[in-house]
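Take a look at the protein record below and flag anything odd:
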Amino acid sequence: MDRSQVMLDVSGTRVFVVDDDADFRQSVSWLLEGAGLAVELFASAREFLAGYRERQGCVLLDVRLPGMNGLDLLRQLGARKAAVPVIVMSGHADVSMALEAIEAGAVAFLEKPFLKDQLIAGIAKAGEKAAQVAEVSARHRDDNVRVAQLTPREGEIMRLVVFGQPTKMIARRLGISVRTVDKHREHVLSKTGVHSLAELVALGVRLGMTAREGETDNDCRRLVGT
């Protein structure tokens, strides 16, 4: 990747640096601020957890920290489903540590000392990951807003459609006519802004409206609250 393009990609990114070495934190802060990035510094994992609020950016995280180590913090962020991407770094790295960090969710692993361009490239990669996560989150919010417009009956019918129930079975299950089911389904398509049953099913799947293998008709009734 061209260096100027990398610099352009990361400009304005916020980086949370978590490292117990004060001199390292300061030198990295100067380097990143000089590249046009916003920087926040933390001396420990617990200090970061106490001060961090969900914001777009990335974490530059040292493995060897007092108290909670970097890999433990990485796992904590994963357990909290934090959307922030993490770059793990270490001055005593080995292959198993790097693999452990990647498996725990790190987007990159840097061995100290590293070059400026390596750090900037890692942050650019983290920025791409953050943008992807933000896009998925925005789509999920939009999906929920569209489905929230449905009446309770329309919501029942959408769930049954996503569950794979044919129109006649839906009508029989809910004690209404096939024509009424069709009318409600038209309203569901209109309100959710989809143009086909396939798109409606895809929307339902994204929101978790799917049946698990082995579920029965009674499970289906419980799914829709009937």
